[in-house]
Amino acid sequence: MNDINDINVGRPLCRACEAAIRMTREQIRALAVKLRLDNSQQTATNEVYRCRLDMCEFCEALLSGATCAHCGYIVPLRAMQPARGCPHPVGLRWQD
């Protein structure tokens, strides 16, 4: 995936965020680890997770390498959740 610190020149900002709000790769990793360790949360298999991220990598709605412009979710965290699908309005790139 794109570097989380890259700035999306020419791409719109997420509707719900201001330009100053950014999560670092380390913050996203920490949340991902917490989600995987939470026994009450089921997560996607590594293969499904990787496939989902690969499909999002070149999507025009991927902002700053981590945020989905359609739903505002942090893509690496949404991709971990087995019951979540891609929110792209033109057509799902992946489903649960």
Give a written overview of the molecule.
This protein is mainly alpha-helical and 96 residues long. The chain has helices at residues 25-37, 46-56, 75-78; strands spanning 62-63, 67-68. The chain has a two-stranded antiparallel ribbon. Strand 1 (62-63) and strand 2 (67-68) form a beta hairpin.
Total discrete domains? 1
Strand order of the largest sheet: 1-2
Strand content: under 5%
Share of helix, binned: 25-40%
Uncertain spans = 1-11
The first-to-last residue Cα distance is: 21 Å
3D shape: globular
Short structural description:
The chain is mainly alpha-helical and 96 residues long. It has 3 helices and 2 strands, in the order ααββα.
Give a topology summary:
Elements: H1 25-37, H2 46-56, E1 62-63, E2 67-68, H3 75-78
